[in-house]
Amino acid sequence: MSFIGHSVHRIDAHKKVTGEALYPGDINLPNQAMMKILFANRPHAIVRKIDTALAEAVPGVLAVLTARDVPVNEYGLIMPDQPVLCGPGSSKPFADRVRFVGDQVALVIAETEEIAVLARDLIQVEYEDLPIITDMLEAMQPEAMRLHPDRDSNVFCHFRIRKGDVAAAFSEADVIIEGEYRTPAQEHAYLQPEAGVAYIDEEGRVTVQVAGQWTHEDREQIAHALNLPEDQVRVIYPAIGGAFGGREDMSVQVVLALAAWRLSQRGINRPVKIIWSREESIIGHHKRHPYLLRTRWGAKKDGKLLAAEVEVIADGGAYAYTSTKVLGNATLMCTGPYEIPNVAVDSYAVYTNNLPNGAFRGFGGPQGAFEAEMQMNHLAEALGIDPVELRRRNLLTDDSILSVGTKLPKGVSIDKVVEACAERMMKSDCARQPAPERHLRRGTGFACAYKNVGFSFGAPEQCSVKITLHGDVEIERVILYHAGADVGQGAHTVMTQFTAETLGVPMEMVELVASDTATTENSGSASASRMTFMAGNAITGACKLAMEKFQRGERPVEVTYTYRPPRTTPYDPETGKSEPNFAYGYVAEAVTVEVDTETGQIHLLEVICADDVGHAVNPIQVRGQVEGAIVQAGGYTIIENFIQKDGYVQTRHLSTYLIPSVLDVPDSVQTLILEYPDPIGPYGARGMGEMPLLPMAPAIMAAVKNATGVWFHEFPLTPQRVLEGLRKGAST
């Protein structure tokens, strides 16, 4: 039986629906202590003094930790620019200051959570408030206060692309479209807030059970902060209640490890547990980057694109997190899946006193795609060309030269997803059906996009796996050791499918040992649409080697295999030339909306989504990924309004930061799964978890324009924003 291409049941389904699966917050160990964190709750200040005496005197308090207790007081996925704990007493320069409201100042470990809360609130902190900068453009000014005084600018990343002669091309253009677009912050809002437990295991290792996206990176950052060898730190992922990029950076990992380690040094060998409230989660972890995109595109009257000029500015917030990687993607995606002979892009990531911003499903793609697709729809309107037809005339092919001066990997299928989506859109009568009331207006919009698989831009990529085969004459037992996280996307099921298919054994024979640094090699992050692609290649490679050994008579068989994809290169500092990515996914969407012109409410009637997934390893999981991305993108575009004012979060609860409910999902989602095999994908599979999110916002904007005659260049499209836009549109 073939397992690739079939909708098999998830291997974790039974445990999750019965409650047997344990998430970090469910784990309780004997004699465990509880921890609470003192957050700064102010956006910018120097911590002059911390007095913990009253807190330490509370009965039941085991320890109060501050910056003085952190051996190497820094962490960060891309650059270690964030203190573990802010305050005096560490060697890290300027670690004595807080830069956003969620900076962590002190830890309280106590017998119960109630005692920890009581003691935390007794800690006395003397702050010297500093000026607050929350506007990206203000932060970029040469005279602006340095939020990190050891850096010479608040701009901590700048990419540039130069292709062709932009000025000359604009002089030849028949139509030039200028635009300014803003995209908002977005809260990940995963179901399981941050939680975890840390302890010293039987081998003396500092062990942390926590939800994350990259066990070995978590281990590396913990070991660095504690100044321990990596083999003295162990990270285990239990069941994970969602991530969407929000668990790629640290939240409670380092402080949990610090607490258990420091207690053990004081002769107190007890596990330490923490569970964040939703409010703590909202202020404590990063968000999707808000972007400002200013742009100008030129085309001939036949629709052929000549030039694109784009300025991209990303609000990085208080610390870098993954801003550089997110910006790298946006820098490439801001010219869309189109062949444009002349391009000039300047992109910037900027420190502010807002919450840090980092990885979020799409990883810079939604922001870049929004600007590119809005420009294409504006051009189509100005030229009087059908929006789909305009795209057909400019889509990338295998022979196209990207803005960075190189070709895409073979297997470009953007034309095929556009055609499939457009054909289905033409057959749909959703938009043509009359609205039930005069104040309801219907319209359809179209957009497309492409997105890299993997980290790319020169980042070292690999995925390692270990497989053991047991049995005398035939294989009787298979153990797959893999660190890759399953954050709800079904990755562990897919890993088992790859193993069973390649070895020719039943899935039930495959035992998966996952997400434990003590037993698995580094598999990289469960992000950037990479896990199916990378894990699949690693597993199939390991299985083939293992079968060769088994057939030669080796018993038992043990194979460790590391897959490395084709090398990528970073942007050239002057021209931007690079080999940016080794694989891509392609997507097109048509969205039909109904706009209530009296209330400003927007209802999603129908979404048609065409995705080239290369080979659908598990079709039902693919459909789930598409539908989930569409709902998340719809929330991003219409409902979710994350508000910060002067560095303070105004939407600190899910009652004020609204996420889509059952009433907000589209009435109909048509998922078109296209399968054009990726030349280097495992069984032809491409990554696809992020792709359906990218074109939704511009497609919705085009649909609203089609319905009302009014363009919106900023979202979310809250009722207030829609009504204001309609009033302004009616007056022009």
Describe the structure.
The protein has a 7-stranded mixed sheet with strand order 3-5-1-12-9-10-11, with helices on both faces. The longest helix has 21 residues, at 531-551. The protein has 3 domains: 33-130 and 194-275, Aldehyde Oxidoreductase, domain 3; 291-456 and 573-731, Aldehyde Oxidoreductase, domain 4 (2-Layer Sandwich), CATH 3.30.365.10; 462-563, 2-Layer Sandwich (Aldehyde Oxidoreductase, domain 4), CATH 3.30.365.10. It has 732 residues and is an alpha+beta fold. The radius of gyration is 26 Å and the shape is globular. The protein contains 17 helices and 25 strands.
Give the CATH topology of the largest domain: Aldehyde Oxidoreductase, domain 4
Specify Rg, calculated over alpha carbons: 26 Å
Uncertain residue ranges? none
CATH architecture classification of the largest domain: 2-Layer Sandwich
* Strand coverage percent: 15-25%
Instruction: Estimate the helix proportion, in percent.
Output: 25-40%
Fourth CATH level, the homologous superfamily of the largest domain: Aldehyde oxidase/xanthine dehydrogenase, molybdopterin binding domain
